[in-house]
Design brief:
single chain, globular, five-stranded parallel sheet, alpha/beta, 15% strand, 10 strands, three-stranded parallel sheet
Amino acid sequence: MFKLSNKKFQSRLILGTGKFSSSSMMLKSIESSKTEMVTLAIARIDFNKKQENFLDPLKKLNVKFLPNTSGAKNAEEAVFAASLAKEALNTNWIKLEIHPDTNYLMPDPIETLKAAEILVKKKFIVMPYCSADLVLCKRLEEVGCAAVMPFGSPIGSNKGLKTIEMLKIIIEQSNIPVIIDAGIGAPSDATKAIEIGADAVLVNTAIAVSNDPITMAKAFYFSVKAGILARKAKLAEQKKYAELTSPLTSFLTNKRL
């Protein structure tokens, strides 16, 4: 069970909705993943047109919408995007994304904290995308964010959990859910994220651009399940030196008579 704000989720896998070759493929992949929450960029929505091919089928899947402010370059733009999302999708949940850097899409920590504080005061359920920085994550927690979403590696890079040691510290110190976002490129990355204690993972590119997104979505479903089971079973301790898996018996160690 995974709880965010006042809502419980059975699935710890959140899917992004960008980069799919078609709306049909996106919808089938979401179904295959068994996710209960999807994020979508408010910048994708054309408010002058009816969203027949995008939002309507998505609504029929009965998944929670987590609109994001991708494209915002400062706090002001992010707060504006969040307000549009609330009006368009009738939700006060928001994934806060502010990344003025166009090469690596690194989140702006100062503007993110500033926007988070404003949105929390406006009664939004705020989940900020951020760097794997403990101090920043604690400040975001203090202003009232519902979760933090530190990255494993840059958005869309598929490089996996390059920040894993920092993520472990954040998970250890956090009093709110930690959702690993960005960089997860393989199901094994998702398993590892859950194994180290992440409450959930958010995946988009790794599924959307694979040769078979529907099968890859299913693979991620099972990978998160594997991570949960491994965490419950408790991973074996790592050791510096080799250790025999089968202790020697006396017939090898006793001297010949």
